[in-house]
Every structure is written in C-alpha cells, then in structure tokens.
C-alpha cells in the first residue's frame, strides 16, 4: 500500500488531523511527521502567554501515525465494516522535552504485536534536533462504534 | 497438569489486568474474566498473548472468542497442550 493511499484512508480531518506525511512504512514499523503550526488554536490557551504544545496532542500525533497509519497498512485490503472504528485503548508515555509552536516532530513507531484486532507499538517522538520529545507504549483496537 | 496448577498459573497471568482483587483472590473455574475480574476487552488480548507465552501454544481467533472465563481457558489450554 502506498503512503498516499494510507493518508487518504485516515479517518481524521482538520483540525484534528495530526499526520502531514509518512517517510517510511512496512509491517513492522512506521515513520511519519507533523508540524505544529503557530496559528493552531491550542496555543491561545496552553498556556496563557506561553504557548507550548499540549502533551495530549503529542500523544495524538504518536497514535495517528503509530497506530492508525500502521493499522491501516496492516489491514491491507481488508475493509472495516461500517460500524467499526479505531479506538485508543492504552498509553504509557514519558514526556521529556517541550514542543513549541512551529516545530516539526517525527514519529518512530515499532510494532510490538498486532493480534486479534489489537495493535501495540513502542513509539518515540523526536524534534528536528533529533532529540527525544516523548517516548513510550501505546495500543489501540478495532472496535464497534458505541453510539451506533 | 492438574486444574489447580492451571488455575494458579492463570491467576498470575490475569493479575496485572484484573480490576477486582476479591474476585482474583477467589479465582475458580467459574470466574468470568470480564464480569468477575473486570478485565477490559483490550487487556483480554494481553491475557491471551500471555497464555500463549506461558504455555507455548498458539491461540486461534475461534478459541480467542471463546476464552472469556477460567473454565473455557482451561479447556482450550488443555486441548492445545494435548494436541502437541
């Protein structure tokens, strides 16, 4: 599957699309990137007068590339039923450095396992200086949409 | 391997994921992973992968869907071990 096809299959749209592109993907690992634009809404309030990227958004970047992009790749031609979707099931992440407005981050995710519809990955996010920004383990699962 | 030994091993496997400590303490053949131990469905996958590792067996999709309580887990483990 081409990276373009994966990006087109992503179930996200702005303002909650946190993948700009993928550098590499195979069935074991994925590398992708995202730039936090200075005009993003979150910086107006996090924090007052001192804009820093919220950890939840760093987590989201890791999840959208490490779990959803890799998940779509691993599913291949298998089509998800209309009532099924991806659900984030657990995160265990250490946050090491701040990410400021305008910074580009790169996700490095490595599959721990993909079994019974659950994908677990070791993920590290790096900044442009190649320093670790955050790192840990995240998992997600194919689930039925609870409100349908 | 007798049932008691199996149940003791299962207790250790489910321990990190069980949210109900009393049910874990009183684990027996009739214990349900979800309703009694309060293991969430995502962690049920981890339980099954840990069972595979502990007993050196492979659990297929069909068995996975049945493995919701101690009784069926024992049945599946015994069947897989017997088939080896």
TrEMBL record, chain A:
<feature type="domain" description="ApeI dehydratase-like">
    <location>
        <begin position="27"/>
        <end position="136"/>
    </location>
</feature>
<dbReference type="Pfam" id="PF22818">
    <property type="entry name" value="ApeI-like"/>
</dbReference>
<dbReference type="InterPro" id="IPR013114">
    <property type="entry name" value="FabA_FabZ"/>
</dbReference>
<protein>
    <submittedName>
        <fullName>3-hydroxyacyl-[acyl-carrier-protein] dehydratase</fullName>
    </submittedName>
</protein>
<dbReference type="InterPro" id="IPR029069">
    <property type="entry name" value="HotDog_dom_sf"/>
</dbReference>
<keyword id="KW-0456">Lyase</keyword>
<dbReference type="InterPro" id="IPR054545">
    <property type="entry name" value="ApeI-like"/>
</dbReference>
<dbReference type="GO" id="GO:0016829">
    <property type="term" value="F:lyase activity"/>
</dbReference>
Automatic annotation (TrEMBL), chain B:
<protein>
    <submittedName>
        <fullName>Acyl carrier protein</fullName>
    </submittedName>
</protein>
<feature type="domain" description="Carrier">
    <location>
        <begin position="4"/>
        <end position="81"/>
    </location>
</feature>
<dbReference type="InterPro" id="IPR009081">
    <property type="entry name" value="PP-bd_ACP"/>
</dbReference>
<dbReference type="Pfam" id="PF00550">
    <property type="entry name" value="PP-binding"/>
</dbReference>
<dbReference type="InterPro" id="IPR036736">
    <property type="entry name" value="ACP-like_sf"/>
</dbReference>
């Amino acid at each position: 599957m081409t990276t373009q096809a994966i990006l087109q299959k992503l179930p996200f749209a702005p303002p909650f699309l946190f993948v700009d592109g993928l550098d590499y993907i195979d069935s074991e690992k994925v590398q992708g990137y995202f730039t936090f634009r200075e005009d993003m809404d979150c910086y107006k309030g996090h924090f007052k007068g001192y804009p820093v990227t919220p950890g939840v958004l760093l987590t989201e970047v890791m999840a959208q590339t490490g779990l959803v992009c890799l998940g779509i790749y691993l599913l291949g031609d298998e089509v998800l039923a209309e009532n099924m979707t991806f659900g984030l099931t657990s995160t265990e992440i250490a946050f090491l450095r701040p990410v400021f407005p305008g910074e580009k981050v790169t996700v490095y995710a490595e599959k721990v396992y993909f079994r019974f519809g659950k994908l677990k990955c070791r993920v590290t996010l790096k900044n442009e200086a190649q320093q670790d920004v955050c790192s840990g383990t995240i998992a997600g699962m194919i689930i039925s949409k609870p409100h349908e | 391997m007798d049932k008691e030994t199996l149940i003791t091993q299962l207790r250790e496997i489910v321990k990190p994921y069980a949210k109900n400590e009393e049910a874990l303490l009183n684990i027996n053949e009739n214990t349900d992973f979800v309703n009694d131990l309060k293991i969430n469905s995502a962690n049920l996958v981890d339980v099954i992968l840990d069972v595979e590792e502990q007993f050196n067996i492979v659990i297929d999709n069909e068995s996975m869907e049945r493995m919701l309580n101690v009784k069926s887990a024992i049945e599946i483990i015994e069947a897989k071990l017997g088939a080896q």
